[in-house]
Amino acid sequence: MKTLIATILLLAATWCHAGDFYLVFAEWCPGCRVMKNRVPKEVKLLDWDRDPQASKLLRGKTIPQLVYLGDSGDRTDLTGVYQPEAVSRWMNQVKDAR
Question: By CB atoms within 10 Å of each CB, which of 53, 60, 76, 77 scores lowest?
């Protein structure tokens, strides 16, 4: 657990910004291609195959995975394919909880 927290803090300090949403995806993944079109423009896209840091952001190996990094290094994620309304609702809940 400490290693996971240290990794997240390192990522947040180097290339991910706290308070941002990220979608980790791959072009070969049908569900990922769907989710790329369903997330709001504020979500930053991280290609699993092109960005070697993307895999470090994941919990497990399942994609697509929408990740929010909190200011204190905490994280919340949503894995799988969802309707745009569900994605927006989840993002609003995450923002309101912060």
Answer: 60
Nearest partner of 32 among 43, 42, 17, 16, judged by Cα = 43
What does the alpha-carbon distance between residue 87 and residue 63 come to, in Å, rounded to a whole number?
A: 15
User: In the numeric block, which tokens belong to residue 8?
Assistant: 């997240």
Alpha helices in 1-98 (DSSP H): 2-14, 30-36, 54-57, 84-97
The pLDDT profile of the chain, 98 residues, written as one tens digit per residue, is: 555 554 444 444 445 666 789 999 999 999 999 999 999 999 999 998 888 777 777 766 789 999 998 877 788 899 999 999 999 999 999 988 87
